[in-house]
From TrEMBL:
<dbReference type="InterPro" id="IPR009057">
    <property type="entry name" value="Homeodomain-like_sf"/>
</dbReference>
<dbReference type="InterPro" id="IPR046348">
    <property type="entry name" value="SIS_dom_sf"/>
</dbReference>
<dbReference type="InterPro" id="IPR036388">
    <property type="entry name" value="WH-like_DNA-bd_sf"/>
</dbReference>
<dbReference type="GO" id="GO:0003677">
    <property type="term" value="F:DNA binding"/>
</dbReference>
<dbReference type="GO" id="GO:0003700">
    <property type="term" value="F:DNA-binding transcription factor activity"/>
</dbReference>
<protein>
    <submittedName>
        <fullName>Transcriptional regulator, RpiR family</fullName>
    </submittedName>
</protein>
<dbReference type="GO" id="GO:1901135">
    <property type="term" value="P:carbohydrate derivative metabolic process"/>
</dbReference>
<dbReference type="InterPro" id="IPR001347">
    <property type="entry name" value="SIS_dom"/>
</dbReference>
<keyword id="KW-0805">Transcription regulation</keyword>
<dbReference type="Pfam" id="PF01380">
    <property type="entry name" value="SIS"/>
</dbReference>
<dbReference type="Pfam" id="PF01418">
    <property type="entry name" value="HTH_6"/>
</dbReference>
<feature type="domain" description="SIS">
    <location>
        <begin position="127"/>
        <end position="264"/>
    </location>
</feature>
<dbReference type="InterPro" id="IPR035472">
    <property type="entry name" value="RpiR-like_SIS"/>
</dbReference>
<dbReference type="InterPro" id="IPR000281">
    <property type="entry name" value="HTH_RpiR"/>
</dbReference>
<keyword id="KW-0804">Transcription</keyword>
<feature type="domain" description="HTH rpiR-type">
    <location>
        <begin position="4"/>
        <end position="80"/>
    </location>
</feature>
<dbReference type="InterPro" id="IPR047640">
    <property type="entry name" value="RpiR-like"/>
</dbReference>
Length: 284
């Protein structure tokens, strides 16, 4: 099975590699999913060698290390169809339902662990500040992401904030876009190759000087060059079916941060919600 860049690199140097590294390289070419999913130590155990040999093999293939090799494979594998992704889920879990479920939890947990500190935490803080500065928050998401942004808009309204949903597809989106205006802040969920709707919304936002914040799955997303802030959260496509857990958790973090950023507004919004509920119960 051919895997583009990695296969070509192996082909060029395979004759120069020592026997052990040659065996590692051939394993990498035949088992890209395992290479992405396993650590150097786990790969070494599977091949009966040392983790140092795994890393040396990656470097011999022209990568800076195993991490760069994994990123390259992830980009290639993530271009697959939903069927491809599901087949990888079956492969890596040995078609075991519990193992597949636990793997999805593990994958999401690994991403979330990195969000709590360092550069990701700084991006989170800047995004909260940007969103808080807007008179209204517009949320863009299509397909499964539409349900995520619908939840976001629901929670924002409970906090007493104005929200605009941009979750329609095709020409139906144009009617929603009519409402975009200066003073808005745009939060987008857009993954892999941006569709026409995403580009159209970005163009309109730029025309109105609307700040754009992007949640995506890859630093290679061309929209990153157009937006004010972006965070890339892998969705698991290289390890199997695309997962939205990390994106949802990051959105939830934004919402909680916003609620605390403007406590008086949040209190007023929730008090209004409770008043309406009480009135409904009284009249029901």
């Amino acid at each position: 099975m051919q895997h583009g860049e990695l296969t070509e690199r192996i082909r060029r140097v395979i004759g120069e590699l020592p026997p052990t590294m040659r065996r590692v390289a051939q394993f990498m070419d035949r088992n890209p999913v395992e290479v992405v999913a396993l650590s150097a130590a786990e790969l070494a155990e599977a091949l009966g060698t040392s983790d140092a040999t795994i890393v040396r093999t990656a470097k011999a293939l022209g990568y800076s290390g195993l991490s760069e090799l994994k990123r390259s494979l992830t980009r290639e594998l993530s271009q697959g169809t939903p069927v491809d992704n599901f087949q990888r889920t079956l492969q890596i879990s040995d078609a075991d339902a519990l193992r597949a479920g636990l793997q999805s939890i593990k994958s999401t947990n690994e991403i979330l662990h990195g969000l709590a500190s360092g550069a990701s935490a700084q991006v989170l803080e800047r995004m909260i500040c940007r969103l808080d500065s807007g008179q209204r928050i517009a949320l863009f998401g299509l397909g499964p992401s539409a349900h995520v942004v619908q939840y976001g808009a629901h929670q924002l309204r409970r906090q007493g904030r104005a929200a605009l949903l941009l979750d329609a597809t095709g020409r139906d989106l144009a009617d929603r876009m009519l409402q975009l205006a200066p003073g808005d802040v745009l939060l987008m969920l857009s993954y892999s190759v941006p569709n026409g709707e995403a580009w159209a919304v970005v163009d309109e936002a730029l025309m109105h000087s609307i700040p754009i914040l992007l949640i995506t799955n890859s630093q290679d997303n061309p929209l990153i060059r157009k937006v004010d802030e972006a965070i890339a959260l892998p969705r698991g496509g290289a390890r199997g079916m695309a997962l939205n857990g990390a994106s949802f958790a990051f959105l939830e973090a934004l919402l909680v941060g916003l609620s605390v950023r403007a406590p008086a507004r949040t209190d007023a919004g929730l008090a209004k919600l409770e008043r309406y509920r009480t009135n409904i119960d009284r009249l029901g």
